[in-house]
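Structure tokens please, single chain.
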Amino acid sequence: MPHTMNKESKKFVFNWGHGIALFFSIFVITTISILFISFTKDFDLQTENYYEEELAFEEIISKKRNVLNDNVNFEVASSEGSIEFIITGDQQQDLNGDVLIYRPSDKRLDLKFKLALDENGKQVIQHESLQAGLYLIKVDFASANKEYYLEKEFVFE
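Here you go.
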């Protein structure tokens, strides 16, 4: 006798085979999505020569200690398209060094300048490529055969 289908036999039954197929499908879709996102994300190194700078870290600690010993103060302010910083302390003569305005999120926005303070210990850096966001201002300089290193986070608006 042929088997006749009634309404109850048309009902979908979720069994373990369907569960495995569903789990495997979700796993594959998630894996492919993560791979796609990771390949399209731009990852910048903190610096190009990270290991060389890491080896010089003891020197930076010594320079920071000189900052503390000589009561060097470092203040930062901003205005439209410029960053102004003031360095005060006992080291006011013959300052020479570099200023790095480091943008952690995009290395293309990093700026590097020579240190050129006026008689009040102030320097204004005007640049049209400054965009709103977080910057790290690094000042590495020497005065009277003593080396100093200043670093300050700054949000440019």
